[in-house]
Amino acid sequence: MKCLFVRPPFAGYIVDGVKFIEYRTRRTLLRGKIGIIESGSGTVIGDAILWSCDLSGKHEGFYSWYLTNARRYARPIPFKHKKGAMVWINLDIDPEQQAIAPHLNIKELIESFNAYEKDLDAFFAERRKVKP
What span, in angstroms and rounded, lies between the C-alpha atoms of 33 and 60? Predict the structure, then answer.
């Protein structure tokens, strides 16, 4: 399975069903089920279906990668990370064989969504400062 590296805390927001658009500076033609790796953890924490990609109308210079049916694994799957920066890695994982963690309750979902919005605003505010 192709697995995507996503920085924390955004990887957690994806697998918890809070974040369904991943913003990237490049487009992707890949579609289907992908693993979600929390960067720096050395683990696959869940999966999602990548179903579309287009140029973001909301954030200039970014593509929107649309995700659905995200699931957090009950136990993260460790793997050996090769040196160097990576976006994708192929891992021998059968997502259908993974135990799935319980979904967030409504209170947890609302709290996580509010935290996500603050983190996303901070991320793009920082990107605007760096932009020439």
Answer: 27
